[in-house]
Amino acid sequence: MKPPPFAYHAPRDVGAALRTLAQVRGKVLAGGQSLIPLMNMRLAAPEHLVDINRIGSLSAIDATPAGVRVGALVRHSDAEHAGAHPLLTRALKLVAHPAIRNRGTVVGSLVHADPAAELPAVLAVLDGTVRLARWDGRAVEREVPAREFFVGPLESAVEPGELAVSAFFPALAPRTGTAFEEVARRHGDYALAGVCAVVTVDGDARVTAARVACVGVGPVPVVVDVTGACGGVDVPGASGGADVTGAFGEVDMTGASGSAAGGWAEAARAVQEETEPESDVHASAAYRRHLVGVLAERALRNAAREGAAARGA
Amino acid sequence: MTTRLFGEPVQRREDPRLLTGQGRYLDDLGRDALAAAFVRSPHAHARIRDIDVAPALDVPGLVAIYTWEDLPERVGRALPLLIPHPALTHGRTAYPLARDVVRHVGEPVVMVVASDRYAAEDACALIEVDYEPLKPVVGLEEAVQGAALVHEDVPGNVGAHLVQEVAAADGRGAGEVIEAAPHTLSFRLDIERSASMPLEGRGVYARWDGRDLRVYSSTQTSTSVRMAVAATLGLPLPHVEVIAPDVGGGFGVKIVHPWPEEILVPWAAMTLGREVKWAEDRREHFISSAHERAQIQHVRVGFDDDGRVLGLDVTIRHDHGAYTPYGIIVPIVTSTQLLGPYKIGAYRVAFTSVYTNTVQVTPYRGAGRPQAVFCMERTMDKIARHLGKDRTEVRAVNFIGPEEFPYDQHMTFQDGRPLIYDSGNYPEMLRMIKELIGWDEHERRPGRGIGIGCYVEGTGVGPYEGGHVQVTSDGRVHVSTGLTSQGQGHETVFAQIAATELGVPIERVSVVTGDTRRFGYAVGTFASRAAVMSGNAIALACRKVREKALRIAADALEADPADLAIDDGMVHVAGAPSASIPLSTVAVLANPLRYAFDDEAAKATQFSATASPDRPPVAEGEEPGLEGRDYYSPVRSTFASGMHAAIVETDPDTAEIKVVRYAVVHDCGRLINPMIVEGQIHGGVAQGIGGALYERMVYDSHGQLVNASFMDFLMPYATEIPHVETAHLETPSPLNPLGIKGAGEAGVIPVSAVIASAVEDAEGIDVDRMPISPSELFELRELRELRAAME
Amino acid sequence: MEHEITLVVNGATRRVNVPARRLLSDCLRHDLGLTGTHVGCEHGVCGCCTVLLDGRPVRSCLTFAVTVDGQEITTVEGLAREGAPPRGLRSAGSAATGATGEGGGTERPSRPHDVEEVKPALSPVQRAFAECHGLQCGFCTPGFLCTVTAFLRDNPAPSDDEIVEGISGNLCRCTGYQNIVKAVHRAAELLAEET
């Protein structure tokens, strides 16, 4: 399991990287935590590798009231510790293991576009964007929204010759909570299914907007706006934090009005209908479909509770 | 007292080097050696039409390419069938490199030698093999249909068929007894494939100096690799040495030998006159080493109102993969160890061992026992459920009583010897495990279940092991034994035995294992046998040395040997510590010398010898030096036993299964080092939980192993393994001088049975297939609801 | 094409020529002779090859040596370096000549401890693993030691759950992890005693 040979380019700035990519149409090496395993197994054999690890300007995390922009060299662990975006931070804790996160990059995970990965779902549920650059006599940039960025399994909108230079995660609206619920076979594995939810409530703790993105149940992150199903639902137990009992997190039903329970369940069913899970060695399609419903309901409840708790903030 | 170390949790002597990166594993050796890599079959079953190596010839660093046709006759012969058995009527083994037909994905076809592994893999990628695909046989059910054949000359794909029967006391057979029993049940059980999966793969490194061949192999049996290499390469045995360096885990897979690479790498080293090394990578390990476990069992049992088993009939279909180099040990062990701690009235067990176009099956820790225990313990649980009795009560009525040992099960064990249990105390063990887990206090509620599993494990199988012990004139004690180590702490426990037997500080004892330069006769490390076999052999060798030391010291001290004792390296008259002589001096006196090369030697030259001038310096029947060699060869195995219990929780929504408590009561006779025994149990349980909830080898219908990576073959991390609570019962074995039994495999054996028992209890669903995943539990729940809806 | 790179390994500056595709794990093991870093899967799952890159645990099998040119690497051979003689320098230097490797053709016993008790200096984490029987075959151990060394630096008094999470990227096939968790607690104690 040794990688095949390749020509190596190590540009020092973005312009040089773009010029190299324009010339050789190579593969970009950032963290390498997805690419190098494929190369070691000789499932990927790029002729040219453009290593962007020496381009210091790509390591920036810019947080503004509008959101956080994460450069192409920002490692998972750096973004996690920076805590620049609550949903991103939450999702990063679910990505693989610490040693992988010390090397892997946020933007790299997006470009890799694994439908079972957490970060594409985060970008998708937030309606974030990826900034792509290429060389056309000068650096030319375009900003691609998440819904156009994820094209298919392991396929993103990055064209040959383009470099993903950053990703933008929009800030949450006021009184908005998030949750990321997933079930993986082992801790740190790709999820069998997962759901991240963003829920906004009004001053009376009634849901005004609710959106989820699902992982592992479609060719790309499956984004579903469920405001219609659970809009207006009263959020119970608005004291914050998920109720957890026993070995598994169990949602506390006490205090939930009938309509609220119905709203969440209806939203979960709506989410299930949008998914196209497949069977593999780890789980059947039927189980994944079931699971995504369970997780959607959990994620929506927990996000709503967090949003309600943030009312005073 | 520093020298009574038997039974103490002595810290491991291996650890300082392993903790500082100073261990020497196979791939740490031979830095300048050429690297080998293999072109392996991408097809499960195919005929090789042509191999074109030309495209690879320009790869920089390429040294040599070999196909089967390039091998000399004796090197190219089919690999040996190591353990023949009369029931194995159609044993088949592979060639070192595929000859005409490949029978599983991963079978080696071409060997490449190059300057380093990168270059070797580059060349492999360019070699073109033209295959004519043949119909693959995948899975037990397809194999037994026999429509397609793995080997053209093996009808029905049946390699072996064996029936063993034990009649009831009144002479009736199991079938008749079951028919007449007050209650009968019949059911089917399935266990899927898993694998040993040590974190270090296999590996071979060879160097040849024109006369002598030295081979390093990451093996569980260096002595036998040596004999196989010498025989195959046509070398005189004294010119071949094989060394097992530090080995990064074995768990059974490394007992198989000679692997193709163990023949090919030394042969290439001789042919090229260069050092050659092959270090298996992870993908190779998945598709070209060995797997285990897969069986389908059909069970019929008859029992009385108390749950007493009157008759048991088990039919086993065993998948042994494409070849049978290790014979049919695994299904034989399943057949015989199935009886566990129980007295079964009449027993009939039949197995059919079949070929499939998959990786060969050879023993993996437990070696057929996990399947056996799964079968018997599922049976016990089903009887209890049928009768509405507590599961432990049903087990208790079937136990062999503590007064009934030695207990003859009237079967033939894997070593060809009668299956006679030496000792044990099962009722007491049941009491202990119930107390440890809190069986009687367990609060039953949906989603929380408790389970139990009991086993008896034959350990310490023969034929023999040996030990050599030498005391040198610096007072150091050098111990060697032929079997190998893969993490069991042999350097520590054997040193404890030697220190205790000889009365020397353990710091002065050093132990070497698995190096044929030091000890040439051995069997190997498997079947929980190392402590029993080599431990006792070393103890016996120490006793010889001790006797000689006391004889020499008695002369020097003018005392009766019977009055002498050895403590802290000093031989002294019991009760008179001043009349003493250091063991180092005894070693000097034991070897009359002519030449005084140092101060110690000066004392031992012939001219200063104190012996009588009328006697020869080396008396008749004596040998120079203070050393001894002895062997331990038992009449039959010792039988360790254990009982495990677990509490699991199942998520009502996601069907996730979590083991919240796990308890073990274990009896391996006298403990040499309780810390090490507990470590063995922890590790075994973790592997068992892997097998129960996570690990499986998944083949598709084309015979492709679809999860051949650590991404998809789910070995548990720390996050998946519960804390294991342990308690020990010590019923010494009467069969060996130290009273010990084996412990290496114990932890893994009953785990699938225990988890199935607990999940069944939590869910009220029959759990008859292992492993079980959340997806499968979800499907069982759906099935239950479907059935309920139909009723 | 070869690239000349400079790595600061266990405190010693090492210059080495590597092809671009040379994995850091292979560079450490085969080019620099530091064989304490083990390779268990070469696809980033097992954690045996974990080393510290500028102090942070990374998979050396998922890193090209050329990418980390100029950076600092600590391997298992360097963990006991602090407060001890510059072991990294010494062991690296001798290994680089190939004179101590078995493959160098030099005759020496395969088990150095057979000749003489080897009592290398141990870091608190290493001592704790020995005390708690946190290793069996030892193959995964260097990866655990590097991971735990960094983990305890960031979290000197961890809970059970934090420890399990902290070591959750390292596979061990022998120990069942129980004694490794115990060893991490013990290492935290030893480190606290030292400061």
TrEMBL record, chain A:
Q: What is this protein called?
A: Xanthine dehydrogenase family protein subunit M
The answer, when asked if Oxidoreductase is one of the entry's keywords, is yes
Give UniProt keywords alphabetically. FAD, Flavoprotein, Oxidoreductase
Q: Where is the FAD-binding PCMH-type domain?
A: 1-174
Origin, by domain of life? Bacteria
Q: Does Oxidoreductase appear among the keywords?
A: yes
Q: Which terms in the Gene Ontology molecular function aspect does this entry carry?
A: FAD binding; oxidoreductase activity
Pfam families attached here?
CO_deh_flav_C (PF03450), FAD_binding_5 (PF00941)
Automatic annotation (TrEMBL), chain B:
Instruction: List the SUPFAM superfamilies hit by this protein, alphabetically.
Output: CO dehydrogenase molybdoprotein N-domain-like, Molybdenum cofactor-binding domain
Locate the Aldehyde oxidase/xanthine dehydrogenase a/b hammerhead domain: which residues?
Answer: 20-135
GO terms (molecular function) for this protein are: iron ion binding; oxidoreductase activity
Key word Oxidoreductase present: yes
InterPro entries xrefs: Ald_Oxase/Xan_DH_a/b, Ald_Oxase/Xan_DH_a/b_sf, Ald_Oxase/xanthine_DH-like, AldOxase/xan_DH_MoCoBD1, AldOxase/xan_DH_MoCoBD2, AldOxase/xan_DH_Mopterin-bd_sf
Could you list this entry's UniProt keywords, alphabetically sorted: Molybdenum, Oxidoreductase
Q: Does the keyword Oxidoreductase apply?
A: yes
Could you tell me which residues belong to the region Disordered? 606-630
Q: Name one Pfam family in it.
A: MoCoBD_1
NCBIfam families from the xrefs?
CODH_aero_grp5
User: Which PANTHER family does the record associate with it?
Assistant: ALDEHYDE OXIDASE 1-RELATED, XANTHINE DEHYDROGENASE
Q: What is this protein called?
A: Xanthine dehydrogenase family protein molybdopterin-binding subunit
Where does this protein come from, organism-wise? Nonomuraea deserti
The root-end lineage is: Bacteria, Bacillati, Actinomycetota, Actinomycetes, Streptosporangiales
TrEMBL record, chain C:
Per the UniProt record, one Pfam family is Fer2
Lineage: superkingdom:
Bacteria
Q: Name one GO molecular function term.
A: oxidoreductase activity
**Can the keyword Oxidoreductase be found in this entry's annotation?**
yes
Give all residue intervals belonging to the 2Fe-2S ferredoxin-type domain: 3-79
Query: What InterPro entries does this protein map onto?
Result: 2Fe-2S-bd, 2Fe-2S-bd_dom_sf, 2Fe-2S_ferredoxin-like_sf, 2Fe-2S_ferredoxin-type, Beta-grasp_dom_sf, Diverse_Oxidoreductases
Oxidoreductase found in the keyword field: yes
Q: In which pathway does it act?
A: Alkaloid degradation; nicotine degradation
Q: What Gene3D superfamilies does this protein map onto? A: 3.10.20.30, [2Fe-2S]-binding domain
Could you tell me which residues belong to the region Disordered? 79-116
What are the alphabetically sorted keywords of the record? Answer: 2Fe-2S, Iron, Iron-sulfur, Metal-binding, Oxidoreductase
- What is the recorded name of this protein? (2Fe-2S)-binding protein
